[in-house]
Design goal:
The chain has 163 residues and is of the alpha/beta class. A hairpin with a 2-residue loop joins strand 4 and strand 5. The C terminus is likely disordered.
Length: 163
């Protein structure tokens, strides 16, 4: 990086702002897989990172043509994991992609509110309450569940389950 970029990043850091290029800025959270023991370990490790700026990456792929749900590449499970463990300064999405168009998944429009508590665990099922609903991930079945007031369509509650 050149001196101008380094100076700009230093100024951002002193103002409480972060950049993805900041050395040591955002820490990458572990991504859970469908192996129960790895899923549990990834969620516990990511939860321990809640006090630092973090990111969890989603695979790059074209969004579905229909409204949610986006199910390819364990998108729902990764989104659930992110919502279970994210701290105050966290990012979910793609890294820097320079040769592909920007994509927007329907779930990015969800208004999940603010977290009301930290992640809780019952066996290998993890849950977290948000001001507009709940999210859970069962590491044994690798099933994600979202119970949120629907985003723009209706204020009624909607429950979505993905395996």
């Amino acid at each position: 990086m050149n001196a101008t970029v380094l100076r700009a990043q230093k100024l951002l850091q002193t103002k409480g702002k972060w950049s993805f290029n900041t050395p040591g800025g955002f820490k990458r959270m572990p991504t859970p897989t469908n192996v129960s023991s790895q899923c549990v370990a990834a969620l516990e490790a990511a939860a321990a990172m809640a006090s630092v700026p973090t990111t969890m990456y989603a695979e790059y792929f074209a969004p579905p043509k229909a409204p949610a749900p986006t199910t390819a590449f364990d998108f729902q499970q990764r989104l659930a994991a992110f919502l279970l463990v994210r701290g105050a300064y966290s990012f979910f999405g793609h890294g820097w992609i320079t040769d592909k168009p920007v994509v927007w998944y329907p779930e990015y429009d969800w208004d999940v509110g603010v977290p009301l508590e930290n992640m809780t665990r019952s066996g290998n099922k993890f849950s977290r309450r948000w001001s507009r609903g709940n999210v859970s991930l069962d590491c044994d079945s690798f099933a994600a569940s979202f119970t949120f007031k629907t985003m723009k369509e209706s204020p009624a509650a909607a429950e979505l389950r993905f395996q």
